[in-house]
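Long-time lurker, first post. I've been practising inverse folding by hand and with some scripts of my own, and I keep getting stuck on stretches where the structure tokens seem ambiguous. Below is the full token string for one chain I'm working on. Before anyone asks, I'm not after the true native sequence, just a reasonable design that respects the backbone. If someone could post their per-position residues I'd love to compare against what I wrote down in my notebook.
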């Protein structure tokens, strides 16, 4: 199908415009709505349009807007079910826009990963066409593995180089303005997801931003003790507001755009005249830093939150404090006020939100659910929902009528510091310590699908020799056993007291061995899910584990700089291997069980002779002689994170923090060649049973390499960085885990084209 797009690109512009552009409105104009439905479920058309330089992704997204227009809704051929299918496909395009802008070949993966669970004929027919006719190799999700449409991220905005601390959205919902620790503000077009321009001028972190109701000006507050007023038409500074003696943490603007109210580490709020740039007056009363401020729609009241655990309500007419709201047990970081001015919602370091009645001056109720500090809160224009952002990396949407959590938004990989909501209440924009902004769909939709996975980072995955089951280990202290045919969870293995860093499975598929941050290894019965026994001896975290083919021995690598060889029959430690000068992160064993290769944070790999020799001394001491180190493989400039060995034992492939894959000859101990192409650190490696291909997972993507040509055959971009991967004996089924806890089940399709 990519070949079709390439052929179309070679055609004259007039031909491409006729095929890709003007026909869609004409289908409605001339009464052929059925043709419109058919066109937008044609994968050839979708792929060709996003790849065409004169059209692209946004033009394709705009095509789908016609389906809900009045002309379509009143058309006799209007079909609600087909319209629903188009809306879902459009939502996928929105949600995966940041990925597709960088790699358009990911369209098939995104459609499969987000829509495969839907029993809609038009969608299933489109996916089947993709599966049957996609010529080039690609990684097809076997189960739903991405956030489904209408239940999560619409778009990710990348551009800041550090934490996004603040965000505001214009009243028309078309633009967002973000402030960052990188000292800049950025203005974003929320329709296209593109950055319009960058606002430079602050000399330190930008902590707060507000925008006037007419969308013409933005006001920012910074650690440089100033506020700046920006013209959003020109991107220029109008003027700088000086007066605070410490960092400016918060800013709000009155509905008429005449005043700005700022809160500072100097314990005060200041009210500014945006016409003159002068301080109108200062509000004193907090005993510690002012972190948050909001203003009522009528411009009469300001509400502030402080490290002193209180909120204060200020009368901007009399310039005096009206009253104090007490109830939080720790710092107040965020505050929002409903459009009718009757209620305020605050977020605190005590992990809660509180809803306050500004008429009675009392707390109405507390919202509990976050597991860490609440840094941000916004409220919809109708006053019915609040959206909060937390240090726990999530956003939560709260129904203020039922006082319940509506749903949880998980996609940021770090703390959420800022949130804003569009006037229509349909979208939220969040800013995070992961340097990104995300645009969220707040409509709940009818499709409520729960993705399988762990609650946190998946450090390790392994597959049984029969290819029927996969085992994953996570930072959530558990292992999960999966049916590799269906992608369904079979059962959970619980027993470790801390993160599970490593997992391996015996050749007969009956037992799994896990290594943990709790310094132990545990041996599990995969038939019953029971723990068989625990191996103790390491003095620090167990980072890696491998098992010999005969299932008799396990080899573990630890943060204590050592490897240990364990007898799985007697449940005893046989030997300790010393030589690394830093934590051992990766371990692999040859198929014949004679050699072990270890990778370490000391930037080296070591090859060990695992054969147990029973000489005269061994007979006298009644113990076998310990394995010996054969040689050290040097060449990596950073930590060796992952290692795998080909089935014939001739080559080892290592992945490093220096973003390279290195192929080593285990006979000569020499580096054979380097595979380069990842833009971030490599976290995991697996080799197909035939030794022809290698799969690497990294912070940027999962890639399948052809070892003979050194070319990338296929790639897969998850919703979070890939942390682990394994391959089934069939050589085409891949299991991967990411930093969010998601487990992906993938199939390498299109390999017959290469044979």
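-- Answer (accepted) --
I ran through it position by position. Result:
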């Amino acid at each position: 199908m990519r070949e079709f797009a390439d052929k179309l690109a070679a055609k004259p512009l007039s031909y491409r415009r006729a095929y890709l552009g003007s026909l869609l409105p004409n289908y409605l104009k001339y009464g052929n709505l059925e043709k419109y439905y058919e066109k937008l479920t044609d994968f050839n058309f979708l792929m060709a349009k996003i790849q065409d330089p004169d059209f692209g992704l946004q033009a394709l997204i705009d095509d789908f807007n016609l389906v809900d227009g009045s002309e379509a809704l009143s058309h006799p051929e209007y079909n609600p079910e087909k319209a629903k299918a188009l809306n879902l496909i459009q939502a996928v395009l929105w949600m995966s826009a940041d990925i597709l802008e960088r790699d358009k070949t990911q369209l098939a993966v995104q459609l499969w990963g987000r829509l495969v669970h839907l029993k809609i004929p038009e969608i299933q027919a489109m996916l089947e066409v993709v599966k049957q006719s996609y010529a080039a190799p690609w990684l097809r999700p076997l189960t739903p593995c991405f956030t489904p449409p209408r239940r999560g991220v619409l778009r990710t905005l990348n551009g800041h180089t550090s934490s996004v601390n603040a965000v505001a959205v214009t009243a028309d919902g078309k633009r967002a303005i973000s402030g960052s620790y990188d000292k800049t503000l950025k203005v974003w077009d929320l329709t296209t997801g593109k950055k319009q321009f960058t606002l430079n001028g602050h000399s330190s972190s930008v902590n707060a931003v507000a925008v006037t109701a007419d969308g013409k000006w933005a006001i920012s507050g910074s650690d440089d003790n100033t506020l700046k007023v920006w013209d959003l038409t020109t991107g220029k500074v109008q003027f700088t507001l000086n007066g605070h003696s410490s960092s400016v943490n918060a800013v709000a603007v009155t509905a008429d755009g005449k005043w700005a109210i700022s809160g500072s580490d100097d314990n005060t709020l200041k009210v500014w005249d945006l016409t003159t740039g002068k301080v109108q007056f200062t509000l004193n009363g907090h005993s510690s830093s002012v972190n948050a401020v909001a203003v009522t729609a009528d411009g009469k009241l300001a509400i502030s939150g402080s490290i002193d655990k209180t909120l204060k309500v200020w009368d901007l007419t009399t310039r005096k404090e009206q009253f104090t709201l007490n109830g939080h047990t720790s710092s107040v970081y965020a505050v929002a006020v409903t459009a009718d001015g009757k209620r305020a919602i605050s977020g605190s370091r005590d992990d809660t939100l509180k809803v306050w009645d500004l008429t009675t001056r009392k707390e109405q109720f507390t919202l509990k659910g976050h597991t860490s500090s609440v840094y941000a809160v916004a409220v919809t224009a109708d006053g019915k929902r609040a959206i909060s952002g937390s240090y726990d990396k999530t956003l939560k949407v709260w129904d203020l009528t039922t006082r319940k959590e509506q749903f949880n938004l998980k996609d940021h990989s770090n703390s959420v510091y800022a949130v804003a909501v569009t006037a229509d209440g349909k979208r939220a924009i969040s800013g995070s310590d992961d340097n990104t902004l995300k645009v969220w769909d707040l409509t709940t939709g009818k499709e409520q699908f729960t993705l399988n996975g762990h609650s946190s980072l998946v450090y390790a995955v392994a597959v049984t020799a029969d290819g029927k089951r996969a085992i994953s280990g996570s930072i959530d202290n558990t292992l999960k056993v999966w049916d590799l045919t269906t992608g369904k969870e079979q059962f959970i293995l619980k027993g470790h007291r801390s993160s599970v860093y490593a997992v391996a499975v015996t050749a007969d598929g009956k037992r799994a061995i896990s290594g943990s941050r709790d310094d132990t290894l545990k041996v599990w019965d995969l038939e019953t899910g029971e723990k068989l026994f625990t191996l103790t001896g390491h003095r620090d975290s167990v980072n890696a584990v491998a098992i010999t083919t005969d299932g008799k021995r396990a080899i573990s690598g630890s943060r204590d700089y050592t490897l240990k060889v364990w007898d799985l029959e007697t449940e005893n430690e046989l030997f300790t291997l010393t030589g690394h000068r830093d934590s051992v992160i990766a371990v692999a064993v040859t198929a014949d069980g004679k050699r072990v290769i270890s990778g370490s944070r000391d930037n080296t790999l070591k090859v060990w002779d695992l054969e147990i020799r029973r000489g005269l001394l061994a007979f006298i001491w009644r113990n076998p002689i310990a394995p010996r180190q054969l040689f050290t493989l040097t060449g990596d400039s950073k930590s060796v994170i992952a290692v795998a060995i080909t089935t014939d034992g001739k080559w080892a492939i290592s992945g490093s923090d220096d973003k390279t894959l290195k192929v080593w000859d285990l006979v000569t101990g020499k580096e054979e060649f380097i595979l380069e192409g990842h833009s971030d650190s490599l976290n995991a490696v697996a080799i197909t049973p035939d030794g022809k291909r290698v799969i690497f997972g990294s912070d940027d993507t999962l890639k399948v390499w052809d070892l003979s040509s050194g070319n990338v055959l296929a790639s897969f971009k998850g919703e979070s960085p890939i942390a682990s991967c394994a391959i089934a004996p069939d050589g085409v089924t891949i299991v991967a885990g990411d930093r969010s806890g998601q487990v992906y089940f993938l199939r390498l399709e299109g390999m017959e084209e290469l044979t």
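A couple of notes from the structure itself: Residues 614-622 have pLDDT under 50 and may be disordered. The radius of gyration is 29 Å. Happy to go over any region you disagree with.
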